[in-house]
Give the backbone structure.
Amino acid sequence: MPPFGVSSVSTLVVLLVLVGAVLGGWALGSLLARGRFRRLHESIIKSKRQLQAIFDGITDGLIIVDREFRIVAVNKAEAAFLGREPHELVGKPCYEVYCRGDAPCELCPAHETFATGRVALVSPLEHTTGYHRKGVDVYTFPVNDENGVTIQAIQYIKDVTDRLQLQQQLREVEQLTGIGQMAANVAHEIRNPLIAVGGFARQLHEEMDPDDPRREHTRVILEEVTRLEQILREQLTLERHLQPVLRPVDVNQIIKDVRKLVSHGILSSGVRLVGDLGEGLPVTMGDANQLKQAFLNIINNAIQSMPEGGTVTVKTQQLGQHILVTITDTGHGIPEEVMDKLFVPFFTTRKTGSGLGLAVTRRIIENHGGRIDIESGVGRGTSFIITLPIVRSTQQARQDDIHRGRGRPSTSDGRDAAGTEVDP
Amino acid sequence: MTRLLIVDDEKNIRRLYESELAREGYEVASVESAEAALEAIEKDPPDLVVLDIRLEGMDGIDCLRSIMEKRRDLPVILSSAYSTYKQDFASWMADAYVVKSADLSELKTTIKTVLEKRGKV
């Protein structure tokens, strides 16, 4: 056994060394931890700045509200639209700012997001302040705490004024086309018998002796028939105004534009819109607005036929001298008894439908020299197959001819009328 | 004698055309549908067809396409009460287009012009 004295000194030394090591370790650890903390702090600040930049960089309105509907944050675009600085709005109830009310607005989609924890949409709403007015879609996205409880809602206020204006224009075209078509149908029905009446009256008139007093009667018949024919022609003027204005169009681009018009409703309806656009589709002559309307009508119909969700696929392809646009849904299909009436004006299976959509659609496609075929079966979904002839502008045709070694397009048969040419 | 085939689903229009065009010295036959027209053309081709566009069953434009495929040499005049078809691309395949009227003078002149142009007179 070593003597106590020696042993206690060495124990002390050991203890001192231990304490030193612990203290040193702590100091070193603390230094290291502080560095880590600083880096962490810096990265949080950096992320926050990035998020703020994104938040303020978005040109649509963004606000974040808590469950009491108080504004937690608002981006620059939205504050600017309201004519305020963001900090002036933070802390205020959003209903005070937006509706000058004393309770959350009934229409606000945040109610749904707070109740369900899901994305909600109200579309469209009118967003007015002072002299500014815009049409908006308002989406709300949930912000959840660590227990999955929705504590805040991010409101995304998307400016859709252009879309609403275009939809309004399309609705007007649709109504006018519908009325025009009805007038044309009536005119057609009346004209045929009138032609027979007038035609035979003319024969009688010409066969009669010039001195026959009955010639006065046949003259009146002819005069009145001519007047009626004139009225019918005027009735058709409206329809004639709706003839397509032809310009070179890219069908794929039209589909992309239509996609923009419908996509706002897709998120909430649970319908997926899938594009399968053929590459290298040739440019054809057409009226972009009318074609947009035609495709939009079919796609909207498809979406509405699937209230419980599904997929709408839009496929474009070239087939010989035609462009095929196939719009397929995964809905219930069209019953046979409805099929025949599908294109009849004012026929509708929906309470809110005008019954003009598909009638107008067919008119537009036919005015473009195309056709619509439908493949459908109950429970199998529906495909609308739109076939459009590829129509080249005279300029294109000329260029093609130069490439083929011909100087100019043939005009000997006189069939390339109105500056455009159809490939038969 | 030059032979015309009239295709129109209105009985009284067919009668009118037959009677009026016979006076002009044509031999006129008429049918009420595109299907009957294609059959008649197959059996015994006329010199010219006056084709209504709006028909029950196959319409005039599809009928015109069939005629173009089988007999490009056969002149066709489209006729319709629907004046807007005049701007439709498909109707440009025809030799001429006449809007129906109680006054048949435009139709008569057009028949004459087309026959001359196609060397059928």
Remarks:
- The CA atoms of residues 12 and 22 of chain B lie 15 Å apart.
